[in-house]
């Protein structure tokens, strides 16, 4: 039930308002400004709207200062003012951010409609506030996993932006989440529409028709581009940055972000067209180190993944033992962040005890592993892949989707 704060020093009017609204709302009643401040502060995050009279006892400052103080305390709580004062004051209060101003005598139908609109406004603001909080939490989560300073990255990108938006090159091997980085950059810096495309799709069907000024395009896996696509993209970026006569060209002024695997340096050196494209777009370059090179950060990464997965699974009392944590830290993590999340989620799903031990890794071997009472994580992952291939009757694309990895990663794991 929604909560309203009603304040008026006229008892008859206040009693009438209580009878009118108490059926549908939980009411807090105040008869002076002192009571308003006390109940507003005590119920700050419960309140959905306030209905106030301006002329009440206990006003130590002018009413505009008091109203401004309440509005700043929690901007998600809309304020409705009911007053018998000159209607000219209505415009001043509305300029300050008051939701609505009603003069006396009241039109009850208008007041009910105003309250309904105010509550809808409050719900919308709270949803937005919660969404923004979740987004901030996600950014912090991926910042920990990827080992990046997004503030420093933002400053670096902004310093490169001139008349056009600087292109960004992300070097990250499989599992390094370059797509997530691109989405965060788009959200944190540009806050406009985000296009994510993989490079085997035809670029000519994407550019320039689907993009507008200020949009962000992310291309994943530049090393997979064919020669014709590389040349086409090179021409687009050249025109975007310089234009045919030194001005912005026909292409929209969009943010271009591309990723390339750190494991293909030799391939890059042998492909001159790709090397030229990378030189063109790599004014802002970002390297995501694989987890196996970040042993000193692995405890924090594993803990972050574990806490997030616990919340998703509502497994609040489960903890990882120190022995198991040491084992996870020493593992080589060939699939990077995806494998950490896969292993942690599997442990949470299969372990019924409050403390997860190294022996519980055995629960992930699907009962047909041999040669070890406590199999290695490599053994466990291989058996996990075999299980997915059996379920999908050898369909590698479906198996990769089931495992939450790309087909390319699955093929590489099978070859190894």
Describe this structure in words.
The chain folds into 3 domains: 3-127, Response regulator (Rossmann fold); 147-288, Rossmann fold (3-Layer(aba) Sandwich); 292-415, Helicase, Ruva Protein, domain 3 (Orthogonal Bundle), CATH 1.10.8. It has 16 helices and 12 strands. It has helices spanning 11-21, 33-42, 63-73, 89-96, 108-146, 150-160, 178-190, 227-242, 265-270, 272-281, 298-313, 322-330, 336-350, 377-391, 396-403, 407-415, and strands at 3-7, 26-30, 49-52, 79-83, 100-103, 168-171, 194-198, 216-220, 255-260, 284-287, 319-320, 355-356. The chain has a 5-stranded parallel beta sheet, with helices on both faces. The protein has a 5-stranded parallel beta sheet with strand order 7-8-9-6-10, covered by helices on one side. The termini are far apart.
Put the structure in a nutshell:
The chain has 16 helices and 12 strands. With 416 residues, it is an alpha/beta fold.
Can you tell me the CATH architecture of the largest domain? Answer: 3-Layer(aba) Sandwich
Through-space gap between termini: 59 Å
Q: Tell me, what is the CATH class of the largest domain?
A: Alpha Beta
- Count of beta strands: 12
CATH topology group of the largest domain: Rossmann fold
Largest sheet: 5 strands, parallel
Cα-atom radius of gyration: 30 Å
* Sheet with most strands: strand arrangement: 2-1-3-4-5
């Amino acid at each position: 039930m929604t909560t309203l704060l009603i304040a008026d020093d006229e008892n008859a009017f206040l009693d009438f308002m209580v009878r009118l609204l108490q059926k549908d709302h939980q009411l807090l009643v105040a008869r002076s400004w002192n009571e308003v401040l006390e109940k507003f502060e005590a119920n700050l995050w419960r309140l959905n709207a306030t209905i106030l009279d301006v002329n009440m006892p206990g006003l130590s400052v002018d009413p505009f200062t008091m109203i401004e103080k309440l509005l700043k305390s929690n901007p998600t709580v809309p304020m409705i003012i009911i007053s018998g004062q000159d209607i000219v004051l209505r415009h001043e209060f509305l300029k300050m951010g008051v939701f609505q101003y009603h003069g006396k005598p009241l039109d009850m139908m208008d007041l009910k409609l105003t309250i309904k609109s105010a509550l809808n406004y409050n719900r919308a603001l709270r949803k937005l506030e919660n969404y923004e909080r979740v987004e901030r939490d996600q950014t912090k989560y991926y910042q920990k996993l990827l080992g990046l300073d997004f503030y420093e990255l933002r400053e670096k990108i902004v310093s490169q932006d001139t008349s056009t938006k600087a292109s960004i090159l992300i070097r990250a091997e499989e599992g390094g989440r370059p797509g997530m980085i691109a989405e965060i950059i788009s959200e944190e810096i540009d806050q406009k529409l985000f296009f994510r495309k993989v490079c085997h799709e035809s670029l000519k069907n994407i550019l320039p028709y689907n993009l507008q000024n200020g949009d962000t395009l992310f291309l994943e896996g530049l090393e997979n581009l064919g020669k014709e696509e590389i040349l086409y993209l090179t021409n687009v970026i050249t025109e975007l940055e310089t234009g045919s006569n030194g001005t912005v060209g026909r292409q929209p002024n969009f943010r271009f972000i591309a990723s390339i695997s750190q494991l293909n340096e030799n391939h890059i050196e042998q492909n001159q067209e790709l090397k030229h494209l990378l030189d063109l777009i790599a004014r802002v370059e970002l390297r995501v180190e694989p987890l196996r090179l970040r042993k000193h950060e692995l405890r924090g990464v594993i803990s972050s993944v574990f806490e997030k997965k616990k919340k998703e699974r509502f497994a609040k009392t489960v903890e990882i033992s120190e022995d198991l944590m040491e084992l996870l830290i020493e593992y080589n993590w060939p699939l990077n962040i995806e494998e950490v999340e896969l292993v942690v989620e599997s442990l949470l799903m299969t372990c019924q005890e409050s403390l997860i031990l190294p022996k519980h890794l055995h629960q992930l071997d699907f009962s047909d592993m041999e040669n070890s009472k406590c199999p290695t994580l490599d053994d466990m992952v291989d058996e996990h892949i075999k299980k997915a291939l059996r379920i999908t009757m050898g369909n590698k694309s479906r198996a990769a989707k089931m495992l939450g990895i790309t087909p390319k990663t699955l093929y590489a794991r099978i070859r190894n």
